[in-house]
Amino acid sequence: MSIPASMRAMVLHRPGEALRLETLPVPTPGPGQIQLRVEACGVCRTDLHLIDGELPDPVLPIIPGHEIVGRISALGEGVTGVSIGERVGVPWLGWTCGSCHFCTSGRENLCDAARFTGYQINGGYAEYTVADARYCFPLAECAAMPSALELAPLLCAGLIGYRALRLAGNTQKVGLYGFGAAAHIIAQVLKHQGRPFYAFTRPGDSESQAFARELGAAWVGDASQRPPQRLDSALIFAPAGPLVPAALKHLERGGVVVCAGIHMSDIPAFPYADLWGERMIRSVANLTRQDGIDFLDLAPRVPVHTAVTRFALADANRALETLRRGAIQGAAVLAMD
What we know:
By secondary structure, the protein is of the alpha/beta class.
């Protein structure tokens, strides 16, 4: 495989500014790293939080993007078990210390020293990238999900949605607040498992509501409406704090509200009576590699089919603004070809 000396990349220099299309040297893999020729990279709401300055202490300038699908183009020293040309995925979690009490107890997602792709490590809004081989996932060639475009949203929307569902436990009637990239994937998992899901969208968002019905929702409405029966759990994918007390009002005793975003606006005060009855609120922080292994084993058996809107790398700013407006059904994905 011939590797060029330079590549195109979209770079964030300062929060609040648009990404800049730049020509940069192709990064060389260091010890333990692999170099990837990026095929596709999903556009995530977390990228908007980064660009808007809502995430603290980013490494700048930075190449965003943490839903990366690519082919291995070079191996760093000491990398074994993978080969040139193999397709792999790079997720949000890019590195952990491996020795703290979180890492040694199966909770590496909470590591204080963790570093994240597209935030502290250059990500996938580029034609090439490098990543720690230990944190990449092999993506088997799969007839159910053959294209890099379809696979990319699984690397964050799918993984975080799956972890949120895990933290909700084996609950049966599941509310999905914010029917975007993560919800449309987890809706398919729930249907596969025979668990009814209830979709909550923005008021007047008829397109998302129709999409949820197509995927088999037991009920569809906006966040101000009451579902026909109480929910056992609610997964909140929209970054809107007021949805937390709204979801609590529709929760059965012993139920759980899971906040799946890395950033959320403030949660307003609510009566203790809405929480009473052993209801719970919990957050999702990042993911573990085991989450990725388990979900990427499950996805082709469902099989999950991602709805994607394709953008060219140079159109990343337009993709981000389209996502901000809520004008995408499913996920936005940058294609590097």
